[in-house]
Amino acid sequence: MKTINYMEPSYDEHEINAVNEYMNSGAWLTEFKKTREFEESIALFTGAEWCSVMSNGTVTLIASLMACGIEPGDEVIVPDFTMSATSHAVEILGARAVFVDVEKDTFCMDYDAMRRAVNEKTKAVIVVDLNGRCPNRFEDIITFCRRHGLWMIEDAAQALGSTYNGKALGTFGDIGSFSFSMPKIITTGQGGAIVTDNKELYHKILQIRDFGREEAGSDHYLMIGANFKFTDLQAVIGIEQMRKVPARVERKKQMGKLYDEYLKDVNGVETVHNYYNDTAPCFIELLCDRRDELMEWLLKHGIKSRKFYPALHSEPAYGRGKQDFPVAQEISRKGLWLPSSVNVTDEEIEYICGCIKEFDIH
Questions:
Q1: Rounded CA separation 177/171 (Å)
Q2: Which residues pair with 53 in a beta bridge?
Q3: Residues ≥6 apart with Cβ < 8 Å to 69
Q4: Residue range 83-88: average pLDDT?
């Protein structure tokens, strides 16, 4: 029986040939012209003024916070349901990640919960475009941050290719952050990107990502920075991957609709509503009270899946287990990601959903 992976990379002869051609060109491998070309393709696709690519999507968040001047003692509001990189980036800088609950239908930051959490120590809000979605009250969050002088950072790690009112997610905040790790719509193995329309922030980011240097190759340091740079070898792959984004966006939307259609009348499971005109879901989501049993059932049938993230406040790293965020906790308890790679065929989706229907009967 063939195993259907929960997620896997997608590449073909285009990436292979591009890497071979680059390696045969006398490549130095390090960051150079191909990296700039990759950045330009991302900026063009998203409509952002500037783009800087880095070694992964966690350091893009760290660099974003550094560019916004986040320091020890500051507070940054983050949703309780997100990948840990969002909140880890805050705490690594000595600031405090202040968790807030999320909406039941989007799993994104709840506006009222965010508003109540703001105090004199709050310096920024990180809005997570979870799985290609934004909060229902997205515009209210944007307006609130502007009125109160708060930086708004958009963690769009899972949202490349998704939009809101025709505009690319990741481009609504002061800074947007993308990830190119293996499960994302494009991958360079590891990698990430920052986009912004703020020239001052962009120049700070260029310094932060290169040890705080005044300019590349200089040994004159204007600030404390780190080595967050990319490589041309990754960029060669990334350029080819970016050419496939439009087709992948459409495929992701098709997959989401197909899963929804097959599972709409199945008892005991709940699909998550996506606005497929805007959302290209990174992951296919499912809520099930018997989540762990369903995972075991699927695995017996050659289907791999993955549990949702935990509600982050409950994790030992933060030591805030006594807090209560009921929506995030319920989602984390019931949530499951089904096979979501663009490599999954329509026939495999039908088989997966058939197995879920059998589980319901069983």
A1: 9
A2: 193
A3: 123
A4: 98
Which residues are registered as beta bridge partners of 338? Answer: 284
pLDDT score of 156: 98
> What tokens appear for 102 in the block?
């999320």
Residue whose C-alpha is closest to residue 108's, from 259, 257, 278, 260 = 278
Q: How far apart are CA 318 and CA 128, in angstroms?
A: 19
Structural tokens at position 289: 């009270």
Asked whether the beta carbons of 162 and 133 are under 8 A apart, the reply is yes
SS3 of residue 188 by DSSP: coil
Q: And the tokens for 218?
A: 């200089």
Element at 122 (helix H, strand E):
strand 122-128
275 — pLDDT class (breaks 50, 70, 90): confident
pLDDT computed for residue 361 by the predictor: 64
Q: Amino acid identity, residue 64? A: S
Global pTM? 0.96
Distances (CA, A) of 221 to 66, 93, 206, 213, 215: 15, 20, 12, 4, 9
CA angle 57, 234, 255 (to 5 degrees): 65
Q: How far apart are CA 72 and CA 361, in angstroms?
A: 54
